[in-house]
Design goal:
- The chain folds into 2 domains: 233 residues, 3-Layer(aba) Sandwich (Rossmann fold); 92 residues, Nucleic acid-binding proteins (OB fold (Dihydrolipoamide Acetyltransferase, E2P)), CATH 2.40.50.
- 24% of the residues lie in helices and 30% in strands.
- It is built from 8 helices and 18 strands.
- α2 crosses α3, α2 runs parallel beside α4 and α3 crosses α4.
Length: 347
Amino acid sequence: MAQVRLEHITKVFGDGAEAATAVDDVSLEIPDHEFMILLGPSGCGKSTLLRMVAGLEDPTEGDVFIDDVRVNDVEPKLRDVAMVFQSYALYPHKTVARNIEFPLKVRGIGKAERAAEAQRAAEVLGLGPYLGRKPGQLSGGQRQRVALARAIVRRPAVFLMDEPLSNLDAKLRGDTRAELVDLHRRLDSTFLYVTHDQVEAMTMGTRVAVINQGRLEQVGAPQEVYDRPASVFVAQFIGTPPMNIIPGGLLGDGSVRLGVRPEHLRLDTGDGATGAGGGRVQATVRQVEHLGHEVLVLAHGNGDDGLALTARLPPEPGLPGAGDVVEFAFADRHVHRFDAASGERLP
């Protein structure tokens, strides 16, 4: 196991007028045995941050520590980390067994020992029957597991994973998510995992670090980040559908934007069933999506206020249709308040 610590990491590509800041003064501590998720949209700097931990990129400023050892000038092969890429990066001419044991061969480990290690890693990931096959004979999910097994045989202190599930279909992603969580539990290692998929972040991570335009927006347990987002960006990035943001001045103070999760919006039928307190807002239904276990009602404001709302409702009779003007209600305890100018959460 190993602790990873990032202190004021900045990465700038290019010089002068062409300079672009990919990572902007990020400090983050990842304790032993944590499953830390780096979450953010494409181009936010999360993969660049991971590559600096691996040693594939050098920070422009700041320090990277692994187990309290500064590794800025340490070669990647000496950092005791293993990286799993989105593209699998397998040798197509080698069998599964030879792919898995290759890192051990590079280290000069004997043939019998590395074969035994490859067998053990393959069994952990259910690859035993496929050791004699070539990568081209495997499914996408199996190839990704081979890449994981190749990382496991190194017995690294830190696993670095760069969107390893992006190339898999929905079912395989779900299955492999569960395998990764189980693998983390069994290996007792530190995982640093990059993704743009907030479902992966919510279901896999011990903690989530949300990154936006190279800056760290919030770090916390997945449920904590969902329940108390630190900014409008986090509020709308975490959650499917994302949090509704009501423009400043539409309901009260113009310096405050209100946030309400779709599951906390209710249709106000005027019978008092929605309860007292909170707020109400009128909108026109644009689309109704029936998902079986729930219905999503998408609506927009009736003026030029930029209001867009999504309500998550139970599949009950009497729901509105496209073009209907409705009133949504929400309880005050479910309201999040953000500064209209900065987007930061208010007390």
